[in-house]
Protein: Stress-responsive transcriptional regulator, PspC family
Amino acid sequence: MTSRKLTKSNQNVWVTGVIAGLGEYFGWGAGRITAMRIAFIIALIVGYGTPVFVYIVASLLIPKRA
Structure:
């Protein structure tokens, strides 16, 4: 069994690589990662700033890939 580690993406980065890192961790393709980015933007509009806080916390907690 291979061990996976959640890290920020180094290649598919828009802001900090958190969403692409999550997508790579779960084995999602580029289309699904783009859909997650769109869902995050919609959550920003609907969530009144809460998604920004979650994204910042995730950005601080998830390490960069070495």
Residues 39-66 form one domain. The chain has a mean pLDDT of 89.
